[in-house]
Amino acid sequence: MMWSEKYRPKNLLDMVGNEEVRESFVDWLGKWIKGSKPILLVGPPGIGKTTLATLCARQFGYDLIGLNASDVRSKQRIQDVLGPVLGNASVLGKAMIFVDEVDGIHGRSDYGGVETLVDILKEPTVPIVLAANSDRTDKMKSIKKATKTIQLRPIPPRLLRLYLETILKKEGASLGIGTILKLVIQSRGDIRSMLNSAQALVTGFEPQTEKSFVTMDVEESVNAFFKAKSVDEARAILYSLRIDPREKIDAFYSSVITSELAKEDLQKMLEVISEADMIYGKIIRNQEWRLLRYLDSILLGLYKEGTAARYSQFNLSWPLLNRLRWDGKAIRGLALSLAKKMHVSRSDFATYYFPFLLFCTKNKSLDLGLDESYNEILQKEMALLK
Amino acid sequence: MQMKFPGTCIVCKKKIEVNEIGLWAKGIGVKHQACAEVLELRCLVCGGSAGCPQCEFRADCDLTKVSQLCICKKCNDTNDAFMSYQKALTKKFPILNLKTMD
User: Fold this and answer.
1) Domain boundaries, chain B
2) Which of A103, A182, A208, A249 is the Cys-Cys partner for A132 at CB 3.0 to 4.6 Å?
3) Interior CA angle at A126 toward A100 and B93, to 5°?
């Protein structure tokens, strides 16, 4: 299990840093009444915005209803998810709304999202918490006006070191002082990334420190992922596969599409890959690279214990690839010689003439007088005719 | 010194008006009295200064940007420093010691 999950704070006292912020957040939620201004938590990734909202909701007995960055947050989607909560607050119990990465709402897929959200923020019937990495963009202006902003700051490195050493002690692991300092400095106040890197070092998965990030190649990693005995193992393998996200999605796509899987499994896996592909598209279009951290958790949906999926570099099956390579060569030769006879291009011949010629040859109504070396390919192609 | 001319603080980049107190050095510039004070984080456990000038992370810790409560070397070197941190947190921020309602 990932340490960042295993040691996710169970209560507000387990967190480190931003003590005054935590106090003011608890104070806000404790005194919340209908109509109170929603809260906007602003701060760099990995310092506990989501954890703070989740813990407070649990400790005050709220049911947290969230929209995270991997969801489409269009006008319609926001109304569908949040509408019932706002309209029937008392019927649905104590609900609290949490919208993560609110500064990432824009673009075609999230069309109208911000405006809808701002309308909701103006008349809150339940506590609403928004989280953003930055509040300096233009699109955040309208959201900021309707909310009370709480700024979370990066955690001082020495506190991070204390936290990391506590976790290492609990895990019975140790790292050299130089490595600890390096991990703390490189994390830049991001607890999650610090813990992930420390775990990578301790458990043997590749380290963030020196040269390379990859311990296994793509083939080994994808096969190990599908053969993993638990979700946690699959997650760890996925995390250690540090290659270009596009290559990662492609590697899983080609593996899934060429493996012999049950129709339902294939459908489910293709849906997961499609979701991963969409979020990657969103990242590239809007250059929202911070969304990249959601990619692995989406791809984790491909894991199913005992699945027959295995790595394949190409997105076509081997028999088909072989046919393309070897039969394709023979067909090109055949098409070239016959195209000359018929005064058309090779491409035209192969596309329009060849299927009819095959029918004529099969029905023995035409003898092309071809070289014997083409017999084999002609027989193969005729066998494929329906 | 009392400012004879207006200037811009080299730390906070805000204006320093005439007659305000500022610290000026030839070739360097001027700064507010408050901006000239050495910024240091506080230790949450003992309440004293966190000892930032001697901290192993002084080169990598932006004191103006990080969360303002830290832990000093003395408190950090105790046997169970994290427990002390949590105890101090409970004492100074009692509101955070909530009971889970599930």
Assistant:
1) 7-36, 42-94
2) A103
3) 75
